[in-house]
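Reviewers of the previous submission asked for a worked example of the structure-prediction workflow described in the proposal, so we include one complete record here. The input consisted solely of the amino acid sequence. No template or homolog information was supplied to the procedure at any stage.
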Amino acid sequence: MYALQYLLGWWPLGQAGCVAFAAIRYINAFADWMSLGFIALSRCVGLVRPNIAEKVFAGRSGVSIIAGIWLYAVALVLPSVTGGVGSLGYNCRGGKCDFLGNDDGNKEELSPHVIFYLIGFSLPCAVILLSYLFIWCYVRASTHFLRKTGLVDVYNSYA
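From that input alone, the workflow returned the following structure tokens.
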């Protein structure tokens, strides 16, 4: 679909197809980012409390988390599909089906790109950064403890 619109310089599949393509692309992107956030969070919880991680991130609760991730992504894009915050369509300036923004000419209003990227990407990014920062601190403290007790030397002699 990207190649088609870039090669032709316009969208040949109509307005509804353009809106659907843009919506699916953004839903997929937001779900991907939130999935990465939950992977980082599950690694963090699994390191500290493996029994809790197994209960929370597996089985039915894991399926519920996956469904919640996709509902989150759809909820972010739905306002633009319905025209509540900007709209989706062919953006001539960008040459692709994308957010169009509001047509009232208000320069002080945030564009849908800014709003959705702040919500859709900064929340998962914060979860990823905080999870891996916690993992790094936890591993560093564990290594410090092992060095202090001399257990690292015993482990290295077997390796």
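The chain has one domain: 2-158. We consider this example representative of the routine output the project will generate in years two and three.
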